[in-house]
């Protein structure tokens, strides 16, 4: 027969033990978290490349849906891209180079050679955006002139 006494203990952890373990784990996490970017080089570059690609696709979509021209201006001195709605700065360790495509000289002012433009029919002036990071890691974002499609290559 089973007898229940005052001395029987259930297996498990006390609340105090769990709190101590959680406190130690949170202290370790606060020391390790700032070093994640050093452990994973290129993660910031990859995130920036994806963000830039998404921005270009959004500009193309807006140009088509609003039947208007949308543009992304390249400002290397300020280390940023500019649209009428926002300004996107790139990280310090990322180098950006823009080789914008060229429309015929009569259609494209010289000042727009540092601008990726999307037109109402979905086309673009085209170009290649090269993003380079540390350890020779790079992403190439290609904007097709005929279709305006944006592709990312690593």
TrEMBL record:
The chain crosses the membrane at residues 12-33. Keywords: Membrane, Transmembrane, Transmembrane helix. The keyword Transmembrane helix applies. It comes from the Bacteria. InterPro entries: N_methyl_site (IPR012902), Pilin-like (IPR045584). Pfam families: N_methyl. Coiled coil: none annotated. NCBIfam families: IV_pilin_GFxxxE (TIGR02532). This is General secretion pathway protein H.
